[in-house]
Design goal:
The chain is 45% helix and 8% strand. By secondary structure, it is an alpha/beta fold. The chain has four domains: 168 residues, P-loop containing nucleotide triphosphate hydrolases (Rossmann fold); 48 residues; 131 residues, Zinc Finger, Delta Prime, domain 3 (Up-down Bundle), CATH 1.20.272; 115 residues, DnaA, N-terminal domain (GMP Synthetase, Chain A, domain 3). Helix 5 runs parallel beside helix 6 and helix 13 packs antiparallel against helix 15. The protein is elongated and about 125 Å long. About 21% of the residues have low confidence.
């Protein structure tokens, strides 16, 4: 006799032999014993869980000549004919290949014929594959079949079965088998068949079966034929280790090794997804009955190494990657990109990645993992004490960001008066803020928030220089603007850094009015710059196109006029003269235009005539 595969050789023959589906076999056995078998059943569940085998056992017990307690005797002619596949009382139809309306009509027409047994059983496998017309044709017969007919529908996807069909049946759900049940079954088969399979082989077939009895026995057949386990889990273990260590080169090297050995990137991604799902379940303290003892211990150990937000993000990223792989010209690229995003949080700007980075930063702050930047050397002088008008330099990125956020909700600290100025040079409160003309009349009066003081500004120490223009420009767009409040971001988004001068960074704005509005929120911007660079960064606002060169000492005031350098000269008597020597205050208004509207229109359009409304 030709060799018969293990899953066919050890197929369940009685209800008592069906593995792990006690809720189903108990109901069917009691119904057969008490004569209360329904006219239609629907068996749904994953592949290899015993749906078709249970339907055949039901057909045997319904036509058995000597059933005992709802079980077939397995020795009568009817039972032997069902097992041999030559019984006229059992009709099996694969709805995946016979899914048309003509196939269903043939089944319906044959139901009126009486066979030699008591009950005619029709098994329709993968019934969800029937066409809508075939399903509709089956409805009437399924609802009121002849008294000697029983329908058993089987499917792996009950969601696709018409609700009207489900409502006409008794629905039983089959589930995957626990690892312990399958392990005992595999060991019994190995002993009965005399197979030479070691413990590693048993672990492998249980992992490959993933709760399906048929898949497990198929894997056992393969291991027994190969004489051992073809261990191909090496790259998968390396991938898990790389994810735990956030090691991008190791992850990419594991993918390269697997693909060089002939593994499909899609299969590798699916295996990694299943592995991380076990880690996720272990982290959530869920049941792990589908895993063997070895795999359960490994999943629990991995759950201690991975953070829960990372595992959740990894499942989402790999799931999206598997969907994208369907249309990708090279699926390996999609897998490589996904692994880079998972091992390097800086390369992923999605919201879950940012949440993970914040969580890691919070843990580091809680454990004291954030340290201040290293000093430049023992011989360097100590850093200067913070000025009263500047915020204290932050001790770390999180501290600086926190101070920047706090500065939005409190007024800026009062600026200290320069030692060389008289007491009246202190900045007035906002209610007494002077107009540009009054400031021109009082030339010695200076508001620190309106621009640099004519006196030389203190330059930073040599060991703590100001950022360069390129550094300021990059930080401005990438990080600093994000730290500002909404009003400050709206006002300062039009600015650009034009360089450093006199110990401060210079930000150019479109016009004098814009600059005056931005001057009100300058302390907040300085706090954000200090938070990003880790040191004070004084800021001076200038008007675009009028920023001073190294040879000029003045800066633009909020009203757009210059102060010192090559700008116009201020007249302390109240007048202001431009470079041409014209006294602006001496100008008079143009005479009023006393013409009527009609006269002005006629002057604008020569040759026009006035036409009266009546004409």
């Amino acid at each position: 006799m030709a060799y018969q595969s293990l899953y066919r050789r050890y197929r369940s023959r009685r209800f008592a032999e069906v593995l792990g589906q006690d809720h189903v076999v108990t109901a069917l056995r009691n119904a057969a014993r008490d004569g209360r078998v329904g006219h239609a059943y629907l068996f749904s569940g994953p592949r290899g869980t015993g749906k078709t085998s249970t339907a055949r056992i039901l057909a045997k017990v319904l036509n058995c000549t000597a059933p005992a307690d709802g079980e077939p005797d397995l020795v009568c002619d009817s039972c032997l004919a069902v097992e041999a596949g030559r019984s006229f009382d059992l009709h099996e139809l694969d709805a995946a290949s016979n899914r048309g309306i003509d196939d269903i009509r043939a089944v319906i027409e044959s139901t009126v014929l009486v066979s030699g047994g008591r009950t005619k059983v029709y098994i329709l496998d993968e019934v969800h594959m029937l066409t809508p017309a075939a399903s509709a044709a089956l409805l009437k017969t399924l609802e009121e079949p002849p008294g000697h007919v029983v329908f058993v529908l089987a499917t792996t996807d009950p969601q696709k079965v018409l609700p009207t069909i489900i409502s006409r049946t008794q629905h039983f759900g089959f589930h995957l088998l626990p690892a312990k049940v399958l392990e005992a079954h595999v060991r019994a088969i190995i002993a009965d068949a005399g197979l030479d399979v070691d413990e590693d082989g048993i672990e492998h077939v249980l992992r490959a079966g993933a709760g399906s009895a048929r898949d497990t026995l198929s894997a056992l057949d393969q291991v027994a034929a190969a004489g051992g386990v073809d261990d191909r889990s090496g790259p998968l273990d390396e991938l898990v280790e790389a994810l735990a260590a956030r090691d991008t080169p190791q992850a990419l090297a594991a993918v390269a090794t697997a693909t060089a050995a002939g593994r499909d990137p899609r299969v590798l991604a699916e295996s990694l997804l299943v592995r991380l799902r076990d880690v996720f379940l272990a982290a959530m303290r869920a049941e792990l009955d589908h895993l063997s003892d070895h795999d359960r211990e490994r999943a629990l150990a991995d759950a201690e190494r991975f953070e829960r937000p990372f595992v959740t993000r990894a499942l989402e990223v790999l799931g999206e990657t598997l969907v994208d792989m369907r249309q990708a010209p090279d699926p390996r690229i999609n897998l490589d990109v996904a692994l880079v995003r998972l091992t390097n949080a800086q390369a992923d700007t999605s919201l879950p990645a940012l949440v993970e980075r914040v969580a890691r930063l919070e843990r580091a702050l809680a454990t004291g993992g954030v340290t201040p930047p290293p000093s430049t050397g023992a011989s360097s002088p100590p850093p200067p004490a913070p000025q009263p008008s500047r915020l204290e330099p932050p001790q770390g990125p999180a501290a600086g960001a926190r101070r920047a956020l706090q500065s939005r909700h409190r007024p800026p600290p009062p600026a200290a008066a320069a030692p060389s100025l008289p007491p009246r040079s202190a900045a007035p409160p906002p209610s007494e803020r002077q107009t540009p003309s009054s400031r021109a009349a009082l030339g010695a009066h200076h508001d620190p928030r309106s621009g640099p003081s004519p006196s030389p500004s203190p330059s930073p120490s040599t060991h703590d220089p100001l950022p360069s223009r390129d550094e300021l420009t990059l930080a401005w767009a990438d990080a600093v603007l994000a730290l500002l409040s909404r009003p400050a971001r709206a006002r300062f988004s039009a600015g650009r850094f034009v360089g450093n001068h006199a110990g401060s960074a210079r930000l150019a704005l479109p016009n004098a009015v814009h600059r005056a509005r931005c001057e009100e929120l300058r302390p907040e911007v300085e706090a954000a710059l200090a938070a990003h660079f880790g040191r004070p960064v004084p800021l001076t606002l200038v008007v675009e196109g009028d920023e001073p060169t190294p040879g000029q000492g003045g800066a633009r005031r909020p009203d757009g006029t210059g102060s010192g350098g090559g700008g116009g000269q201020e007249d302390l008597a109240g007048g202001v003269e431009d470079e041409g020597g014209i006294d602006v205050s001496a100008l008079t208004d143009a005479p009023a235009d006393l013409r009527s509207d009609v006269e002005r229109v006629m002057a604008a359009f020569p040759g026009a005539e006035v036409v009266e409304e009546g004409n």
